[in-house]
Specification:
single chain; 10 helices; DNA polymerase, domain 1; 5 strands; Cytidine Deaminase, domain 2
């Protein structure tokens, strides 16, 4: 008996999608893949072709009212709901990107990093370590509290910061901690912890943009402080 040519077709198609992305597929193939999630079994290729024939283009399929989608053979309410939901989510995605482009802080200088972290840490009575994960343009993907110590010390958890940077696809990380009642210059331990964090992130291809110290409404870039001290020692 000849093998059914459609046997394993969905599995092979999804493997190609995972390996190469959506760009290698024609419009009807992309629509066929989407229909997998509404039509659990069977060949969705004919339905994809009928939709494109009916509406003329991929974008017109997504823009079509659900009632008109259901007029196409093989498209029921569930399939129409899937198509309209995906279209709506694309709109939400684009709007979210526009908001990020317009309002996201770009932490691409020591001054901007300091200005970003000072308001967040100035009111803290405990020593707190924050990490901001950045995209390739220096925009903040997210900022989170990494650790909270007592009045004197907070650990710099390089493993946690590196792991979370990988999870959110960060290209760089800016970190900051505060000295609630101490000086605005870093300790030897602060400088050593910064070096360890830079090494951990660098091994993953992620840049440590800066480690900022906040105290009494002011900030110090540990990178700049370290370089200044090195220059003084050379003189």
């Amino acid at each position: 008996m000849a093998e059914n040519p459609h046997t394993g077709h969905r599995r092979r198609t999804m493997e190609k999608l995972r390996r190469f992305g959506m760009g290698i597929f024609a419009d009807h193939e992309a629509l066929e893949i989407l229909l997998y999630f509404a039509v659990r079994q069977g060949d969705t290729n004919p339905v994809a072709h009928r939709l494109l024939d009916r509406f003329g283009s991929l974008h017109a399929v997504f823009e079509a009212p659900a009632e008109q989608l259901c007029e196409v053979e093989g498209v029921g309410p569930h399939t129409a709901d899937l198509i309209k939901t995906v279209y709506a989510m694309v709109g939400r995605y684009q709007e979210d990107v526009r908001k990020m482009e317009a309002h996201s802080d770009r932490l691409n200088s020591h001054e901007r990093i300091g200005a970003y972290f000072v308001p967040q840490l100035s009111g803290e009575r405990d020593e707190v370590l924050l990490a901001a994960y950045l995209d390739g343009a220096g925009r903040v993907i997210k900022c989170e509290e990494i650790a909270r110590g007592g009045h004197a010390n907070v650990p710099v958890d390089a493993y946690k910061i590196a792991r979370n940077a990988l999870l959110c696809g960060a290209a760089g990380v800016a970190v900051a901690h505060n000295h609630p009642s101490g000086p605005v210059h870093p300790s030897a331990e602060d400088i050593q912890a910064t070096g360890r964090l830079r090494q951990a992130l660098g091994g993953l291809g992620i840049e440590l943009v800066d480690h900022c110290l906040v105290a009494r409404g002011r900030y110090t870039s540990i990178d700049q402080y370290r370089r200044t001290e090195e220059l003084k020692r050379r003189k």
